[in-house]
Design a protein that fits this description.
The complex is a heterodimer of chains A (243) and B (108). With 243 residues, chain A is α+β, with helices and mostly antiparallel strands. Helix content of chain A is 35%, strand content 15%. In chain A, the strands form 2 sheets. Chain A has a 5-stranded mixed β-sheet. Chain A has a two-stranded antiparallel sheet with strand order 6-7. In chain A, a hairpin with a 2-residue loop joins strand 6 (98-100) and strand 7. In chain A, helix 3 packs parallel to helix 7 (171-181), helix 7 (171-181) packs across helix 10 (221-237) and helix 8 crosses helix 10. The radius of gyration of chain A is 20 Å and the shape is elongated. Chain B has 108 residues and is an all-alpha fold. Chain B has helices at residues 3-32, 37-44, 48-76, 81-107. Chain B is elongated, with a radius of gyration of 16 Å. The N and C termini of chain B lie far apart (38 Å). The model of chain B has no long low-confidence stretch (mean pLDDT 95). The chains are: A alpha+beta (243), B mainly alpha (108). At the A-B interface, helix 10 of A face helix 1 and helix 3 of B.
Chain lengths: 243, 108
């Protein structure tokens, strides 16, 4: 790093919903992620700091936090790319209740996955033959574009509509619903389309595209939601779902 | 917003698109031709075509605006869904009344 500084000034959120930012000085390293910084504080400066992580390699989706005002996956965010002027401000994800310090209560996020019928509904038993799905079929291509979600909650934290509308299912849950709507093996689409076409469903999306902008997996939930809008409108006009 | 309101808002938007263009064209035409109120009324009075065009426009605008206002109030005010819906319906009814009254004034 060309920066001549030897320390970072790091402000971390301390407390629950009500709290304050507290400053810590953390040694600057050649290669250092934001999660490394938080871990250094917890191990060397204040063991009471609460935060959440598991894999440290961008797979599990546990370590998302607000870093200098933007939601990010901290294990794959290098300090050198975000610490302007040697300063970092790290807070919990927005749009979720704060349990303590940097750990949020993810229950509303995952409950909305269930409300959006984000669970696979099997159409066959183990005694039936497995469906052959061509990788180049349009439905499978649509699934491929949306499937790599790691449930980190960054899109949920970045979404204006989530902030304004407590009923809104959010980008991740709707993106998940879209992958199942396109899954030939799934039998739950009648209930799923009804769930995402209700108030707080896909039609509440304003297409601001913050989810797409912030998604660490470079997914585009806005496009998935647009797909759900088209699919639900067609189903509504055919009388397959009521509203 | 559920799928029913979404369909109504998009459908009324699609309906209004040509009507807005026509409305702007009519304004330009009337002002550039230097038409007086009497000239305009002579053309619109008793015209089923003008009554149908502007009547449709007013109805579509009232529905479209009411749905939009409901969303804005629901998301940006502390009113809550039920009161936002009631306020938006009253707003749409007022637009409908004022608009149809204006249409009646030029075609009847």
């Amino acid at each position: 790093m060309s920066d001549a500084r030897s320390e970072l000034t790091v402000s971390l959120w301390r407390g629950a919903q009500q709290g304050r930012y507290e400053s810590y000085n953390v040694p600057l390293r050649e290669n250092q992620t934001v999660l490394d910084v938080v871990t250094f504080v917890q191990r060397h400066l204040d063991p009471t700091l609460s935060y959440r992580f598991a894999c440290r390699v961008g797979v599990c989706g546990s370590c998302a936090m607000t870093v200098n005002g933007r939601p990010r996956w901290t294990c794959r965010t290098h300090v050198s790319s975000v610490a302007k002027g040697g300063r970092l401000e790290i807070g919990p994800l927005e749009n979720l209740p704060v349990i303590k310090d940097l750990a949020t209560d993810m229950r509303p996020f995952f409950e909305k996955w269930q409300e959006a019928k984000g669970a696979f509904a099997p159409s066959k038993t183990r005694h039936d033959a497995i469906d052959a799905i061509r990788p180049d079929s349009p439905a499978r291509v649509a699934v491929d574009a949306a499937i790599e979600c790691i449930n980190c909650g960054i899109c949920y934290a970045a979404c204006d509509t989530v902030r304004w509308n407590a009923d809104y299912l959010g980008p991740a849950a709707l993106n998940r619903a879209w992958t199942l709507v396109n899954d030939a093996r799934d039998a739950g689409n009648a209930q799923r389309l009804a769930a995402v076409a209700a108030g707080g469903g896909c039609h509440a999306c304003h297409s601001h595209q913050s989810c797409q902008e912030h998604c660490p997996q470079a997914l585009n939930p806005t496009a998935s939601i647009a797909g759900l809008k088209r699919r639900t409108v067609a189903a509504y006009l055919k009388g397959e779902i009521k509203a | 917003m559920n799928v029913r309101l979404y369909v109504w808002q998009r459908a009324t938007a699609a309906l209004m698109l040509p009507l807005v263009l026509l409305h702007v064209a009519v304004i330009f035409y009337a002002t550039r031709q230097g038409m007086t109120a009497a000239d305009i009324l002579a053309r619109t009075r008793g015209s089923i075509v003008w009554a149908a065009l502007y009547g449709t426009f007013v109805i579509a605008a009232a529905i479209h605006a009411a749905i939009g206002v409901r969303n804005v109030l629901f998301e940006w005010s502390p009113l809550g869904e039920r009161r936002a819906t009631m306020f938006a319906m009253a707003f749409g009814a007022a637009l409908l009344l004022l608009g149809l009254r204006a249409v009646a004034a030029v075609v009847l």
